[in-house]
Design a protein that fits this description.
With 248 residues, the protein is mostly helical. The two termini are 24 Å apart.
């Protein structure tokens, strides 16, 4: 295999890895936004439960105020009833007092209901707050993992790019220029392996004579269909071509 082809393969391996890492880095902000959105949903649940509890407490306070008003009104009516000049006035005051007492009883019944509702609402708030606290911890942990992953990816890219520079310097300038040109026009892939008589990227069958010339490995050849550089993986171990920084 020509040294330029061997180095071009090594460049392609590095470029493929850099592309994967770059895509991962680009996706991480979206991932962080998604986990923060989950936190927002949980926060809204807490806010709703808190608002329901506050509304319950306000209603109870309002009912207590209504009772106080009715009690004051009852006291005033009793005083007025004592000064009634005839049975008609007396009975009128009596009916109003009875109405006030019924209202007081109705308000008291509702207060008892709100007290029962308050216990459930208070439990809901505490449960929602506990869930929110747990969600916050999980979100912070996921964000930390995402940030660490980004830092690791960037560090790996930096190392790969240093290695790429060294490999690129060993390639004939004309071949390197052709590699870069093809890579830009072919979705980042400039060189492909010929497998079972076909280009592994465009899957077009290679002409027998073309394939024989390619196997000789004494010239740089490109796929007649997709125009990518081609190579045949000869008995030489392919692992020898994989840059150290890319190996698992």
């Amino acid at each position: 295999m020509l040294p330029d082809i061997a180095n071009a393969i090594r460049l392609q391996i590095i470029d493929d890895r850099v592309a994967v890492l770059t895509k991962e880095i680009a996706a991480l902000p979206k991932h962080i936004a998604e986990i923060e959105k989950k936190l927002e949903v949980q926060q809204k649940r807490v806010d709703v439960d808190r608002a329901a509890l506050v509304a319950n407490q306000k209603e109870r306070k309002s009912l207590e105020g209504d009772i106080q008003v009715q009690e004051q009104k009852t006291s005033k009516l009793k005083n007025q009833m004592m000064e009634a000049k005839n049975n008609e006035q007396y009975n009128a005051f009596k009916h109003e007092i009875e109405f006030c007492q019924k209202e007081i009883s109705r308000f008291e019944d509702r207060i008892l209901e709100t007290m029962g509702e308050s216990e459930l609402l208070d439990k809901n708030v505490k449960a929602a707050e506990a869930a929110l606290s747990l969600e916050k911890k999980q979100v912070e942990a996921e964000k930390k993992q995402a940030q660490d992953r980004t830092a690791a990816d960037k560090a790996e890219i930096a190392e790969l790019m240093r290695e790429r520079t060294t490999i690129a310097a060993a390639i004939t300038p004309k071949v390197l220029s052709e590699y870069e040109r093809i890579r830009k026009g072919r979705a980042g892939v400039a060189i492909a392996e010929a497998i079972d008589g076909r280009c592994s990227k465009c899957h077009i069958t290679l002409r027998p004579q073309f394939l024989q010339e390619l196997k000789r490995g004494d010239a740089i050849m490109v796929c007649e269909s997709c125009k990518r550089m081609l190579y045949v993986n000869n008995p030489q171990s392919f692992d020898d071509l994989v840059p150290q920084s890319v190996r698992v």
